[in-house]
Amino acid sequence: MFAVTVRQESDRTVVSCAGEIDLMSTAELRTVIGDQIVEGRVHLVVDLAEVTFVDSSGLGVLVAARRKTRTFRGSLCLVVDHPAVLRVLHVTALDRVFPVHRTLADALAADPAVDTAGPVDPDGGAAVTRPAG
């Protein structure tokens, strides 16, 4: 089962997901994120802390959303804590594309104007960030 909610946190829009992001749920996620961007909310935090699985279609939605936010000088970062999801990001090298935070508080504290990403330790270590270049 998949669920998605949206809320505003200061100048950031938090898109919180729970469950599995797969072929059956990506249309809903794509629509929700797309609606935020169309409405001018381009600094997004996608909270995947309650997500237990992401397949390639889900990764595609996230990559496309990042591209769209950057087109409008926005940002998109991820909150990921589940080891399986961290591992997928690491294996696909998407941890070098997205800023990945372990908690929502960390993501909201980060400056959205500084787009950093770096490899995460899929076994539970802290994320390593590097300046975007």
Secondary structure layout:
Blueprint: E1 2-9, E2 12-21, H1 26-38, E3 43-54, H2 56-71, E4 75-79, H3 83-91, E5 100-101, H4 104-109, E6 116-117, E7 130-131
3D architecture notes:
It is a single chain. This protein is of the alpha/beta class. The protein has a single domain (2-131), classed as STAS domain (Transcription Regulator spoIIAA), CATH 3.30.750. The chain contains four helices and seven strands. It has helices at 26-38, 56-71, 83-91, 104-109; strands spanning 2-9, 12-21, 43-54, 75-79, 100-101, 116-117, 130-131. Strands 1-2-3-4-5 form a five-stranded mixed sheet. A two-stranded antiparallel sheet has the order 6-7. Helix 1 (26-38) runs parallel beside helix 2 (56-71). It starts with a strand and ends with a strand.
Given as residue ranges, the uncertain stretches (5+ residues, pLDDT < 50) are: 124-133
CATH superfamily: STAS domain
What's the end-to-end separation, in Å?
38 Å
Q: Element order, helices and strands? A: EEHEHEHEHEE
Form type: globular
Fraction of helical residues? 25-40%
Major sheet strand order: 1-2-3-4-5
Total number of domains: 1
How many individual helices?
4
CATH fold label: Transcription Regulator spoIIAA
- Overall radius of gyration: 13 Å
Highest-level CATH class: Alpha Beta
> In percent, how much strand structure appears in the residues?
25-35%
How many beta-strand segments? 7
CATH architecture descriptor text: 2-Layer Sandwich
| Biggest beta sheet summary | 5 strands, mixed
Structural class: alpha/beta
Instruction: Let me know the average pLDDT.
Output: 89
